[in-house]
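Re-run with default settings, no changes from the original entry. Doing this only to confirm the output is reproducible before filing.
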Amino acid sequence: MLQRAEGVVIKSFDYGEGNKIVKLLTETGKVTVMAKGAKKVKSRHSAVVQMFTHADFVFYKSGDMGTLNHGETIQSFHALRTDLYKSAYAAYLAEITDRLMEEQEGSSAIFHQLIAGFEALEADKDPVIVMQTYELKMLHLAGYAPIFDTCVSCGAKERLSYFSPGMGGALCTDCQTQDTYRMPVDDKARKLLYMLQRLDLKRLGETNVSDGTKQQTQQLLRRFMDTHIHIKWKARSFLDQMKEYGI
């Protein structure tokens, strides 16, 4: 069956001598297609199957994998492939999308948030804020949304000075002893995460968040994700290496 869908390339790899297999995120789910001859310089598919490309795709689907017939680029996101720093963050957004979404699981909201995330990175918005906002969107989709505005134990809305990765949210000072692995969290970091959880990336403006606050929110989100989602993130490891070597 010939199908048409607007999609974003979230994974692309070589197959055979001249072909590529690409994974697309569309509003109705992930689609895997073979782009025959796409590795060849003069191929009509070579540009449209590049990582992060947002395009209209026409493909023939008869089983688990389709065959690409045609593609028209909407946004190439060229800067996300040529700038190492931006590329690393964009790759993480693509990887978390691929790993946390099932093959036929569709989400129009995530589709548009991913595009907005790529646009924000290309526009030089704070990549850490972009990354954390998108992580929170994907956690919500996967059913692991952390709670930041109330104590997960007693429901209190004040003195939320701790966060429990295992229990899934903030803890007040009275309930902190319920988790020996709790993490201290200050109000700025907790309120930032609560705001990012509800932020539409399309509306992300200029931000002025201290490095200390971003470091705390990043540690908190990482602990939470590693507690509930047992995946070794390749792109995240690369980001860590870049930070370690001061890139």
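Residues 226 and 232 are 9 Å apart (CA to CA). Helices lie at 78-82, 84-100, 108-122, 127-142, 187-198, 211-228, 234-244.
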